[in-house]
Amino acid sequence: MGRYSRLREIRRMDPARDYAEILRLISQYEFPWDYRQGVSVAFLRDYGVPRISVLLDRTQEFERHGQKRYDDTVLIGYEMAVDGFDSERGRAAARHLNRIHGKYRIENDDFRYVLATTVVGPKRWIDRYGWRP
Asked: What is the pTM of this model?
């Protein structure tokens, strides 16, 4: 496989239909280290929002179980996307995510912000530091 083979493969895909495969290729083959760095930066950005940082500080989840929380975030995101967000597997992962966070009073805007940073963080990192466009 040549250096740009996966890029050509991704460019032939339909993002609306093939997003799970595109995510897999980017996060597992093209930019695995960069993808993880982007998720890590996204976690840090979450602390910049006062309501979110107060909750994170109160729960002590990052301090006590930071690596587990990071790993769980990546795994649940993968489970949601691998067969499609509307698949049974994707819906089950979303239900699990909601169940985990259900015991906390979290504003929908804060949920959306955290989800957005988890998606946008890796993209921005890869765009800025990745080995290819």
From this structure: 0.83
